[in-house]
Amino acid sequence: MKAFACIAAAVTLVAFSAPASAQFAKPEDAIKYRQSALFVMSQHFGRIGAMVNGRVPFDAKVASENADIVADMAKLPWAGFGPGTDKGGNTRAKPEIWTEQAKFKEGSDKLVAESAKLAAAAKTGNLDSIKTAFAASADTCKVCHDAYRNK
Ligand code: ASC
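# ascorbic acid complex -> structure
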């Protein structure tokens, strides 16, 4: 009984704390997953960018909807950078991602934080606040791409 309780507790713990990387059957799937998540995020980020840069008229509701999606998507790609996913698919990810894990995580955490601020700014409907928060988020994209993505 004690053993059973132990196993049940362990199973529960794993279910709630297993790194999401465990969900991938093969490295190629993890690579596809992270690229897909980043692509979806970039599409929604780009829609805000078009308003921020004046290419399309500003619509506060559309900006807010897109910023919410960006903030949610920002949490996803990182599970796809687990151990052993540096190769096995078509990837521009640099090996430094896996040798500088703490720094890489710092960068991804920064994007998650800045995109949450962007979503909050978008809820105010104030274009200037959105511009500032958009620039801060875009900077976190760029810093990581410069350091960790091959040309
Ligand atoms: C985007 C996008 C990126 C970032 C980056 C910001 O819209 O697809 O990768 O912004 O260009 O510097």
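# post-check
The radius of gyration is 18 Å.
Residues 27-52 form the longest helix (26 residues).
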